[in-house]
Design brief:
By secondary structure, the protein is of the alpha+beta class. 39% of the residues lie in helices and 20% in strands. The two termini are 15 Å apart.
Length: 153
């Protein structure tokens, strides 16, 4: 990977907040002409520093009113079991994030669902389908205090 300089970092900071900014405006804000800025953005994409662009959706207006975190513990652990869990959870549309973690539990899962009935179904599917899943602990979010996809660069 190419070493990131101050201009690359400024481009990344702007694009995180304004992914749809025109190259001409981005160029003006970083103090370069459009062509080198466009080339830098393409390089950052090719090097996978920029992995995509997205629209941030209002989940409440989409009917996905409940955010829940689930800690999941497995009875056995192996590379094959971790791969199987990864494959199964990738197929669950309600799961927004899943992390293999160190500690008392093996996975931390973030899911968004419309209501508690759907949560119950989701939890049942997770526990029944995942290999070696033996215990879960859930945390239903009462208030979302901060959520961000912005990282300091």
């Amino acid at each position: 990977m190419h070493e990131l300089d101050k201009i690359d970092r400024k481009i990344l900071a702007i694009l995180q907040r304004e992914a749809r900014i025109p190259i001409t405006e981005l160029a003006a804000r970083v103090g370069l002409s459009p062509t080198p800025v466009s080339e830098r953005v393409k390089r950052l994409e090719q090097e996978r520093v920029i992995t995509g662009y997205h629209a941030h959706l209002n989940q409440q207006l989409l009917g996905l009113r409940i955010l829940v975190f689930v800690e999941l513990r497995l009875s056995k652990k192996s590379a094959e079991i971790f791969d199987a869990v990864k494959r199964e959870l990738a197929l669950v549309p309600e799961v927004l994030e899943c992390h293999l973690v160190a500690g008392e539990f093996d996975y931390l899962i973030k899911a968004r669902i419309p209501d508690m009935q759907n949560y119950r179904g989701l939890l049942g599917r997770i526990l029944l389908k995942l290999p070696m899943a033996i215990e879960s602990r859930s945390y239903v979010v009462m208030e979302e205090v901060k959520e961000s996809h912005i990282v300091e660069v």
